[in-house]
Structures are given as structure tokens and as C-alpha cells.
Amino acid sequence: MKTRKIVITGGPGTGKTSVIQALEESGYYCFHEVSREIIREAKEKGIDQMFLEEPLLFSEMLLEGRIKQHREAENTGGNLVFLDRGVPDVVAYMNYSGNDYPPVFNRVCKEFLYDEVFILPPWKQIYTEDDERYESYEQAVAIHDHLAQSYHYHGYRPMEVPCGSIEDRTSFILDHLV
């Protein structure tokens, strides 16, 4: 049986991590966001905001991490695997920032495919900034738009998950995976 790879995406502060954690607590295999680990490691090396200081290097590291997760998803043994962000997220963030990137970024988006994409919309009531999230709410809205555009460009039709409790959001996702 083929493992179905399901992406949970959205701008910063939309509740992705909480939804992924709830799915994991329900027994689903989940891959967590790789950017927070990369950001923490960069800070330990004295790079305060790696995405701003070295955007191409940061994005290459993200791409490598997301490709690794995609490959590992095949070996989980489960029929459903959830990923906190996918390969097209990297392109979306580069487009948002206006930084140039090599053609390989779009090529790998067409090589490492997902079965479903769910996008969580901006939600001002739950938005908070932290040590790894430095974007304002307005920037988070703009990033959301770039994410939607990137997934559409790469052939997906992301399903928007309505705002609501974590339980309602996870139920919505699971109910739409028929």
C-alpha cells in the first residue's frame, strides 16, 4: 500500500504545529517543521536571522530537510503521513522575500509530490511572535498568499482549513481524506 503524504501548510502563527501535534497524539506519523531547528542551530553559530542574512543558504538547507522528510515518509509503514510544510513552501518564501533562487527549487517541487495539501489561513486571534518567528501578522498574511500561489503553481489545490479548535481542525482534515 502506498503511503499518502499530506502537507499541512500556512503562514507563520496559523496553528500548524498544534494541528500536527494533535494528529501525532492521535497515532498518525508526523514530520515536524525543519526550519526551527535550522534557525536554532544558526543562532548557536552567531547568525541571528539566517533567513534574512543568508536566504539562499537557509532555503537550500530547508529544501534538503524537506526532501529528506519526503523520502523518509515512504518508510514509515503507515498509510497516512503528515508533514509540517512541504517542498513548495521553500519557493513561496523565496518569492515572498524577493530573493533569486536556482531552477532546481522548482524542479524538485515537481519531483517530490504530495497527495493532499491543507492550508491554514491567517488568524489574528492566535498569532504570536517568538524567538524563531519574527514576522508581523501583516507579513504572515502576505506569506500565506505566496504559499497558496506556490502550491497552485506546482499543480496542487490546497484545501483551506477553517479556523476553530484544534480538534475541529484535525477533524476537518481527517474527514477530507476520504
From TrEMBL:
Residues 5-169 form the NadR/Ttd14 AAA domain. It comes from the Bacteria. This is AAA family ATPase. The lineage of its organism: Bacteria, Pseudomonadati, Bacteroidota, Flavobacteriia, Flavobacteriales.
